Amino acid sequence: MLNKVVFLGTGGTIAGTAQSDSDNVGYKAAQVGIDKLLESLPALQRALGAHLAETEQVMQVNSKDMVFAGWQLLLARVVHHLARPEVASVLITHGTDTLEETAYFLHRVVPAQLLSGKAVVITCAMRPASSAHADGPANLCDAATVAVSPLRSGVMAVCAGKVHAGVYIQKVHPYRLDPFDSGDGGPLGFVEEGEFRRVAALPEDLKGAAQAGIERLVTANCPRVEVVVSHSGSDGAIIRALQNDPINMTEPLRGIVVSGTGNGAIHEGMEVALGQARQAGILVWRTTRCAYGEVVLGSGAGTGELPAANTSAVKARIDMILALMQ
Known about the structure:
The chain is an alpha/beta fold and 326 residues long. It has 9 helices and 13 strands.
């Protein structure tokens, strides 16, 4: 019987505090434990219904400081709990800054068989827990509603009443309470008066695939992959600097994702440096820095043209890391 929701705390603004309840910017993230967050929220039990809550503090970080090792630890705990027959969903509290990366990573690596009839639901806040107008409590309740809904599936993120797919979500605003967007895909649904109204389903090819070797994923070293942006005046100096960085010589550069202008275009000065990097054995992909759409390849594309990713640069970086770990 699926009668439990496991809450995994990772920190973020939802667990942040400030000296004044009117301070929504000068707070310190990751101060309140997951147990405390739930204790101060009696409405959560109504959202959970007959389901029981279980908590675990996986980490306590400002999400801007998330690292691959943090993802590995989180993945291990998510897989552990989803494998338990009594667990309906795993609900993660997370900072908004890198939520889209964590959600995408989990979408890519959590085995599909573990998500059969279950879900990973991520939620967050744009105001600290100490704020007089904290949005975390409502987001937690909405996320719990989704976590126990029969309409739950895959990796989902809940914020400001919207439910986004982990594969699509991106942060598009630095301050407003509704900072996320799902690009061309649009939200999966909405939480309204304690009910999850689903309006879209993921295409079959975006539901994630069964992943082998979870043990290796949670223990292997992360190959070094960097993201660079092509802009007016890009002369390739940053590419050469990345290849010759004496501080990180113990972790040689393995890959570069270029966030290109428009349809994945790259400044000619940067193109030369990237060509040299490829000759040195460094994997190079390109994507677009535009908020919507993806790189469109024409029939006349040359064989020497850089491979194009169909995600944002930070998500393409995750794809490249996983490809290099094969």
